[in-house]
Specification:
Helices cover 23% and strands 25% of the residues. It has 25 helices and 47 strands. The strands form eleven sheets. Strands 1, 3, 4, 5, 6, 8, 11 and 13 form an eight-stranded antiparallel sheet that branches. Strands 16-17-15-18-21 form a five-stranded parallel sheet. It has a five-stranded antiparallel sheet with strand order 22-45-44-43-42, covered by helices on one side.
């Protein structure tokens, strides 16, 4: 807050020794690095948004953190101000460190004063404000002018700790300020009587916490008041006049919108567009005028007036319940690409499809207006968001925002619509694919490819234009950060703008490719900028068909430029920056080749079943890693019938084990859309890939094979007579589809046949065990006692089914929660095992349990978050670890003394925060099938998948088949394979 003097000492005194004692009892682990990255500085939150110590924001309801609850005297000190309390922290500066010279320039500091209570300090520690230095002694209370340049310097080898309280003030605090001392003002009266606030053991003080600190839509009157404060220190120059003119024009337009809408949602889109346009103008005026306190004038306008002007996340919703808003989205379509790839042109064109709704532009304000989704809430790590960020509250809020702002090509809102198709394009969402997929499980993604040279050159132009600045990053001293914020941006300090753009493109593109290739194959597709420009109507029809939209417009080349185009299109335009970017292209070569290959070969498309023998492909065996058996990986790669990037290495013991068992394995990998058959071929291991859309659980009863997929369950039968016709002539089984039961997207997990041959289905989306009949999608048979309704909300992530003597006996789930996806909040240790008959929890506190199995008189399961195979006793709840493996364990088949365990590589965006991610580095994690000796816990063989296969769901052992085949539903051989009754066979004429 701006004061008329540098410092005011409040007439209060506190027991610094008592405060220091309370602080010393707090563990070091609760201290955090300074949110703006100041070296040698740390913070310990005491009052934070929602009471969350990890939330460094200043917008929202302030509440005490757990640390403040443990410090009674700190509570009494804060309460002594008798004012509403905003963000409050303990601030620590290490010995021989400083805070950094700065001015607090944003809306928050126009309203708040900062009260310092020194707790641990030294007379040599100096506080500097407006050029005046002084020492704040322990136990005193001070306020200073945050609008002036200020710093703290600690020249001693000891730490300095202050209690720092933010407040908007009150009548009582104003009275204290009036009686306070003003050491830099020689005309000021002496300080009034000092009141000592002693610790009272029985006191339970009331702390007034802030509730309303930012407007939903800032009123024109408040804007005028804020700008008047800026004008008071604005120099009378031509540049100052130009800044005033731009701001005045903005005020005129804002006032017009205010008169039409005030804070109503109907005006949010127009407000956001006006803010975006004015922000771009402010960027062009940066460095043109400096205020008397050294702050850039345009920057001050941006931070104090523009950035805080629209806060739709604080509004009370008038749309349907957030849950209702979220369920109205039908297969939303998201365009992802690196910035400046032409995504605006694709978006503006595809938004003309019949029946599609969009917000008409990019969603920066709608998404980042939710405080937990802003990069500042993640210590400015990046724009990347994961599934963990998709909390029920966030999903509901963002869905409501999208639904409120969306309109179709005729400008009609979604108000009267039920479910609707939604199209979105924001370049930063290329770093949020897993977040969006968690929020909208039926989302479809379109990846727009463009030559990396043209894209990087355009990104470099964007950086230099100043029109695409996104953040004023703490500690960043280069050209103002533009476009998406990528992981590792701090390491780019000091690099040329060209190198920053090159590394930015590589990071974004690599993230997009990784995340897309982890999705089911029917949930994304690829197009290219060149194809879009050259053949617009063809591309629109092709993309519309893939995503399920109706295209009814005629297009001809060329398409009009998008509104974000800087200069006219020219295929050779990139050469203007060639001298700068060509020497840096080696930094992106590997990722660029991946992107080109992805566009050149349509991703994860099914390939026709062939009866011809596969051509071997050489794969080098990788170096052994931890927890690997002593058997050397085979130098001969596993052979495959697929032309995709499928590679694997295996121990020589694996085909030998399968041969000795007379068995084969089936493995599902939903992420790459394949069922993999593993079978011994002499001393080699043969792998055969069969396409299914997101294959998950399987069940086998000796003849029938059930396979759960994205929207259906396939019923296969073994036809040995057909096997004899396959090449090579070594097949002893051939599974042919007999029926397909459409369930819809129930997120099917494990399947099992009971003793009577009925198939049981784990319906994860509806949190229930089900069976199937002819007339319905599914028949609910059981659900956990804590699940109060049948709702498509994945409330507990029911996933595993354990059968004993042909009877469904136990299930596993990732939490005992009854809210949509509530299990995500404690996934690392919230897992449970339930007894079906009693509907009681028999084991809990597990790390993402999967695959319960009854075998050899014991219950077994996989504690996936730890990468372990364990036994457990349902009567006592006790568990025992048998083996630990280098991956996320999921999928378990058992035979004799062996366990075949599926391992997944654990993508950080999905499985962050679990024990396995902390135990193993990414390069140490494996995907494949590990064979464990149940008697010793040792690994006796493995196959490790590489290339496209990164995640495994289920494993089934076929104990009576050495070399089976599972045909795709449209395989040619099926056309000549018939199953008839014995009675009908009597009338068949045999060739």
């Amino acid at each position: 807050m701006r004061l008329n003097t540098e410092y005011i000492q409040l007439p209060l005194a506190f027991d610094a020794a008592r405060l220091a004692s309370e602080i010393s009892a707090l563990p070091e682990s609760v201290w955090q690095p300074h949110p703006e990255g100041h070296a040698g500085n740390a913070a310990l939150p005491l009052m934070a948004v929602g009471g969350d110590p990890l939330n460094n924001g200043v917008k929202g309801v302030m509440q005490p953190t757990p640390q403040l609850h443990n410090c009674p005297y700190l509570q009494q000190v804060i309460s002594a101000l008798q004012a509403p309390i905003g963000r409050t922290r303990l601030m620590r500066i290490d010995g021989r460190a400083e805070a950094s010279l700065h001015v607090d320039v944003n809306y928050y500091w126009q309203q708040h004063m900062r009260v310092h209570v020194p707790i641990v300090t030294d007379p040599a520690v100096q506080f500097i404000c407006g050029g005046h230095a002084l020492h704040m002694a322990a136990g005193q209370a001070w306020v200073f002018d945050t609008w002036r340049e200020h710093n703290v310097i600690n020249p001693t080898p000891l730490q300095r700790i202050h209690l720092v309280i933010d407040t908007t003030g009150s009548a009582a605090l104003s009275a204290l300020l009036a009686q306070g001392g003003r050491p830099t003002d020689p005309q000021a009266p002496t300080m009034g009587p000092v009141r000592t606030v002693a610790f009272e053991p029985s006191a339970r003080p009331k702390i007034w916490h802030e509730v309303d600190n930012f407007p939903v839509v800032m009123s024109p009157a408040e804007q005028q008041t804020l700008f008047a404060n800026i004008q008071a220190v604005l120099p009378s120059t031509n540049a100052g006049a130009a800044l005033c003119a731009e701001v005045t024009g903005f005020f005129d337009q804002w006032r017009q919108l205010w008169e039409q809408h005030q804070s109503a949602p109907s005006g949010w889109r127009a407000y956001a567009d006006l803010l975006e346009g004015t922000s771009n103008k402010m960027e062009r005026l940066r460095s043109s005028v400096t205020l008397s306190n050294g702050v850039d004038g345009a920057f001050a306008v941006q931070q104090i007036i523009l950035t805080p002007a629209l806060n739709t996340d604080l509004a009370e919703r008038v749309v349907p319940s957030v849950r209702g808003a979220q369920t109205r989205f039908d297969r939303p379509v998201f365009i992802v690409s690196s910035p400046r790839s032409g995504s605006s042109l694709l978006f503006e064109t595809l938004s003309q499809a019949q029946g599609v709704f969009s917000i008409g532009g990019e969603s920066h304000a709608l998404i980042e207006g939710i405080e937990t989704l802003h990069p500042s809430a993640h210590q400015w790590h990046s724009n990347q968001l994961s599934g963990a960020d998709a909390t029920p509250e966030v999903m509901q809020e963002l869905a409501a925002r999208f639904a409120t702002a969306a309109h179709d090509r005729e400008g009609r809102p979604t108000t009267d619509q039920g479910r609707f198709r939604f199209l979105e394009k924001t370049p930063k969402n290329s770093l949020r694919i897993s977040f969006l997929r968690a929020m909208f499980p039926d989302a479809i993604f379109i990846y727009l490819y463009r030559d990396e040279r043209a894209t990087i050159s355009s990104m470099l132009d964007a950086w230099r234009s100043g029109h695409f600045v996104t953040y004023d990053l703490p500690g960043w001293r280069g050209t103002p950060w533009s476009l998406a914020l990528v992981h590792g941006w701090r390491d780019m300090a000091g690099m040329s703008t060209a190198e920053v753009a090159v590394r930015q493109w590589e990071s974004i593109t690599r993230t997009v490719l990784d995340d897309l290739q982890a999705l089911p194959p029917d949930s994304w597709c690829v197009t290219s900028y060149d194809q879009l420009v050259a053949h617009p109507e063809h591309e629109m029809r092709r993309l519309s068909q893939f995503v399920g939209l109706a295209w009814d417009r005629a297009l001809t080349a060329p398409l009009p430029p998008s509104r974000h185009t800087l200069t006219p299109a020219n295929p050779n335009k990139w050469q203007a920056n060639a001298a700068e970017i060509e020497p840096l292209m080696h930094l992106v070569s590997a990722t660029a080749e991946r992107a080109r290959a992805l566009f050149a070969h349509e991703p994860l498309r099914r390939v026709p079943t062939t009866l011809a023998p596969p051509a071997p492909t050489h794969v080098a065996a990788p170096a052994p890693t931890q927890n690997m058996p002593t058997h050397a990986p085979s130098a001969v790669p596993a052979q495959t019938h697929d032309t995709l990037d499928f590679r694997s290495v295996h121990t020589t013991s694996l085909p030998q084990l399968l041969s000795e068992l007379g068995a084969s394995l089936l493995v599902t990998t939903y992420q790459s859309g394949r069922l993999i058959t593993l079978r011994a071929d002499g001393p080699k291991l043969n792998t055969h890939l069969t396409y299914f859309p997101s294959p998950m659980g399987m069940a086998y009863d000796g003849n029938r094979l059930a396979i759960g997929t994205l929207q259906a369950i396939w019923d296969y039968r073994n036809m040995p007579d057909v096997a004899a016709r396959l090449h090579p002539n070594k097949h002893d089984g051939c599974f042919i589809p007999r029926n397909m039961h459409v369930t819809g997207d129930i997120r099917v997990h494990e399947l099992a046949f009971d003793a009577g041959g009925e198939l049981w289905v784990v319906n994860t989306r509806f949190s229930a065990l089900c069976t199937l009949d002819r007339d319905h999608s599914f028949v609910p048979r059981w659900r956990p006692s804590f699940i109060t309704a049948l709702a498509a909300e994945d409330r507990c992530h029911l996933n595993g089914l354990g059968m004993r003597d042909g009877v469904p006996t136990l299930v596993t789930a990732l939490g005992n929660t009854n809210i949509p996806e509530g299990w995500r909040h404690n996934k690392a240790q919230g897992g449970i095992v339930m007894d079906i008959a009693s509907n009681e929890i028999v084991t809990q506190g597990l790390g993402m349990p999967h695959s319960p199995r009854w075998h050899n008189g014991h219950w077994w399961l996989l504690e996936s978050a730890k990468g372990t195979l364990i036994t457990f006793d349902p009567t006592t709840g006790k568990t025992q670890t048998i083996a630990q493996m280098p991956g996320f364990t999921r999928g378990l088949a058992m035979h004799g003394s062996l366990a075949f365990v599926g391992l997944s590589q654990v993508r950080e965006s999905v499985f962050d925060g679990i024990a396995l991610s902390q135990r193993l580095k990414p390069e140490e994690r494996s995907c494949g099938v590990w064979v464990i000796d149940l008697n010793t816990g040792n690994t006796v063989g493995f196959i490790r998948f590489e290339g496209i296969v990164q995640e495994i769901f289920d494993i089934q052992i076929l104990p009576d088949l050495r070399y089976p085949e599972v045909l795709e539903p449209d395989a040619d051989v099926i056309g000549g394979a018939f199953v008839l009754s014995d009675e009908a066979m009597k009338d068949v004429v045999m060739d």
